[in-house]
Write a structure and sequence with these properties.
Length: 231
Amino acid sequence: MVSADEKELSRVVRSVSSADYWEGRYRSGGNSGKGSYGRLAVYKAHLINCLVHREKIETVVEFGSGDGHQASLFAIPHYTGVDVSSHAVDRCREAFGKRPGWDFVTAEDFVPSRQYDLSLSLDVVYHLFEDAVFEQYMHRLFAAATRFVLVYSSDHEDPDRAVHVRHRKYSDWVRDNIPGWRCLRRFEQPYPRIGDEDPAGSSFAFFRLYGRTNTEVGDSAAIPGGAGSGL
């Protein structure tokens, strides 16, 4: 149950845009959050790397690359990280500047002059407070991909104690607003958050893999958590 004080704090935080929140967080020395570190980061990277290898994916764009710690675990030949925070982008350019085939750009400067095999969204959807920002983000996410879109997020509308979190039933929105795509796999979270508990290394987020309507994906058993998972 979210208290009145928590609701008021949430209102104050959301008086600034989600983009301003993250720019301020990174400029003040903050990072992308615990989901980009520890066993959750290792789990996400392992699943993504397995998918990239299995499906022979060459080009990947991530919308919401943050401080780059999660990306540092990726084995991706050609990667573009896009973020609303210019400070985070500058940090990533410095950290990965010598990695061939990798580049980072602000969301404002991103020009969709090409498409990518895979478009990634990791722990971003539920951080988008504004409806218009959410819809623009989702359209851009799917428009950038030729083969797959992989989303790691919650998928419900329950309130959350964290003031910078707004859960969304994004899968319903995709179904109703993104024609030509379908959910290929849902991957169960191996470290689920139980109830109101918030132990380190657990999450309410999980993966959904989308593909073009005529896209098939290889044996899901070759991807962690893929075997027998429903949509």
